[in-house]
Amino acid sequence: MKCANCQKEITNGLYLCPRCGKVTSADNVQNVSLLNDYANKLQKMMQSVGTAQHTEIAWDLTVNQYVQKMEKLRVVLSQPEFSKSSVDRMIQRIGNFIERCKDPVFHIAFVGTIKAGKSTLINALLGRNLASTSVTPETAVLTKFRSSKTDYVKVLFYTSDEWTQLWNSISNNADVFKQEYAALHGEQAKGEWINHAPLTQTVSNDSLETEIERWTSSKHVEHYFVKEVEIGLSDFKMPEQIVFVDTPGLDDAVKYRSDVTRAYIDRANAVFACVRSDALTGGELNTLYRIFSNSSDNPEKIFILGTQWDSLNNPEKDWKLQKAEWVKYLSSESCYGSPEIAQRNVVHVAAYLMNLCRDYTGEKDMQRKLARIAAGFPEFEDTIVMPKDVEEHLEELMEKSNVSQVHRRIEQDIVPKYKEFLMNDIIANYQAISREIKQFFEETKESQNEVLQTSMKSADEIRQSYEKSKKELDDVQAYREQLEIAMKQLDENTKERVNALCKSLEDMTKSA
Ligand SMILES: Nc1nc2c(ncn2[C@@H]2O[C@H](COP(=O)(O)OP(=O)(O)O)[C@@H](O)[C@H]2O)c(=O)[nH]1
Ligand SMILES: [Mg+2]
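# guanosine-5'-diphosphate complex -> structure
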C-alpha cells in the first residue's frame, strides 16, 4: 500500500509510515490520540536522524557512507524509548568504529603478561632500545611506534574522568604502585598533567631515547598521567600506516590499564602475543583464545611468540616439546584451525640475545652474559670456550635469536597484505555492529509481541490494552524498517568493495 501522506510504498497494515512518520490509517483505532503521540515521537526521531552530526571521512567514499549510517543508527539508539543499559554497548562500539575509520592505520599489537618480553622484542625489531624496559610492573604506558618523515614524540594524558577510573581500579596488592607514586610526589604533580592537552614534540633522532624516557619511565612522575605515547621514527622501515603498539601487561595491577590492553587486542589488526617459552598457563591460554575469537575471519594475523627462548635449560630440546604442546592447543577450529598454520605462526624468539649482540661493546660483563647464553647451544660448545670468544660469533648468535624470523613474518605475511586486511577489518567491524543492532531490534519486536500475547489472556484486557500494544508494535516495526533500509547495502559485494577500498587507500598513501 501507499502512505496517504508521502505516497511512498509501505508494508500493508502499518499505522505509522516508516518513511515520513505520519499516521497512515486510523481505521479501527479507538485511541487516536495515542496513535498521534507515537506519530509525533517517530517524526521527532526521524528529524534527529536527519540532523545527525556527520564526521567527514575524506579518504574513502564508501567508508564515509558507513560512518554516516552508523552515526544515524547512533541517534536512533539514543532515543529515550530504549533503555540505556541495553544500547550503551552498541553506542560505544559505533563510537570506536567511527574513530577507526577516521584514522585508517594498521595496528600490530604486542600483548602478553607483564615481563613476557614485549618491549625487549619491539626494541629488537626497531634495532634500538626505544621501548621502555626499565619499568616496574606497576607502570607501563601504551606506546605506539610508526614511521614518519620527521622524528617526533606525541604524548596524550588522562582526563580527570579516566584518572578517577584508573585510580579506583588499582588492585589491593598494588603496593608498589602506591609507594612509588607517593615517593615521586604524584599527588602534587597530578594537577599539572591530568587533562593536559596532547603534546607533540619534534625531536632529533639522537634524543628520542631521552624524550621517550621522560614520559614512560618510572623514574619520572609524569609517566603516571600519560595515557599513550606515539613515536614517529624517520628510520623505521615500515609503511607509514603500520603501527607497532607496545601494550601494558594483561595482568597489570591497575585494572584500568589491563582493560586498555584488552580493548587494544580487540582493535588490533594483527597480534603478536608474547608468552614466555617455558610457560603457557591456563590464564594465558584463555587470553589467546580470546584473541582468536576476535579475529575469527583470519587467524593468520595472529602470531604466538615463545619469548625468552634462551632462558630455557636446553632451548632447542625443551622448546620442541613446548611447541608441540602449544600447537596441539592452538590447532583447533576456534584457533588456527590447522596444525600447519599453528606450526608456522608459533615462533620462538630470544630478543634479549639479539639486543645484546647488537649493542656489543666488548665489555667483560657483556661477554659473560653472551657466553652464558651460548652455553645453552651445543653448536657453540667447541667454539665459545672463553667469554671473549663470543666476539667471533656475534652474527651466528644474532641469527640464533630468531628475531629475523619474526621480521620475516611481518614482512612476508603482513606488509604486502595490510591494506586488504585493514579494509576487511573495517567491513567486518561494520557488519558485526550492524548484526548486533539488527538483533537488538528483532528482540525488541519480540518482547513487544509478548506484551501483546499476554494481554490477550482476557477478552476485557484485549479491549483495553490491545490498541496500546499494537501501536507499540507498529512503532518498533517502523524503527526496524528504517533500519533495514539503512542496512540493505550491507551484505552486497563485500569482495569488490575491498578492492575498491584498497585502491583508494593506495591513492591516499601516494598523495600523502
Ligand atoms: N634471557 C632473556 N631475557 C629476556 C628476553 N626478553 C626479555 N627478557 C627480560 O625479561 C624482562 C622483561 O622484559 P620486558 O621486555 O620489559 O617485558 P614486558 O613487560 O613484556 O615489556 C627484562 O628483564 C628483560 O631483560 C629474552 O629474550 N631473553
Ligand atoms: Mg614493556
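# post-check
The first helix runs from residue 32 to 50.
The radius of gyration is 28 Å.
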